[in-house]
Amino acid sequence: MKKHSAYLMMATVVTVMVFVACKKDPEPLPSIPDISVITAQNIIGGNENITVVKALMVYDNSDEWSADVIAASEYKNRGFVLTLPKILPDKYLFEIDNEDLLVSDPKAKMGSPEILAFDNEENEVGYFYLWGINISMGMYVEAGYYYADRDFTIKGKIDYDYYSETWDASFKKGWNILYWIEDIESDELFTTKKPSGITLRWVYDGSWDWSHSMKSSKNINSLKKHRSKASKEKNISIEKSKADVK
User: Fold this and answer.
1) What is the domain extent for residue 135?
2) 198 with 141: CB under 8 angstroms?
3) Is the pTM of this model over 0.90?
4) Which of 22, 54, 79, 233 is the most buried (most CB within 10 A)?
5) Angle 147-153-156 from CA coordinates, rounded to 5°
6) What is the rounded CA–CA span in Å between residue 233 and residue 69?
7) Spatial separation of the C-alpha atoms in residues 180 and 228, rounded to whole Å
8) Are 222 and 213 in contact (CB under 8 A)?
9) What is the number of structural domains in the chain?
10) How many CB atoms lie within 10 A of CB 110?
């Protein structure tokens, strides 16, 4: 009887050992990109005068605009890596105030840094932006990094004289990427969903003095849009020229 029990116990142990040995390790979860780290490589148009790249946040300092550096990086081999802070103070953020847009939480705030280039004497020499274009699809895209103080959505449509803006964006607390998508011949879409069929590249532009423009502007968000419009016209012209040569 004792011998039978011993055999039974041994068989049970062997069975457990085989089961454990055959059990597969769980598949690792796919890694989620850290949006707070901006990695730019093979930048279009960069030059040897750039030594430092800085991310600046603008805020209303009494009766004038001021800006603070929230991240900095060496400019090297036509690239940079900026690590944005995990949390931004409230002074850098603004509420979404537009009666044509439905914000899921009216108290939600957001803010976006400017990515500027400086030389070795700390002179501002231009700025960087992330963009892409597909002439055959008639699509132009710019992307910006936006910090949100909570989870919220923005939906709605703003009609202007000659075009309209559609918003369909879902922000998570922390850093997000907002895409400005424009059909070259029609309207604009602002969304947090990355568009397909287009490759985004970092570009350097030395033709815009952001600090000077900021000091003379009454509306920072309008200034950002005006700058983006100017960049878009130039980029579309360049890409169309390339297409004509082909």
Assistant:
1) 24-245
2) yes
3) no
4) 54
5) 120
6) 29
7) 10
8) no
9) 1
10) 22
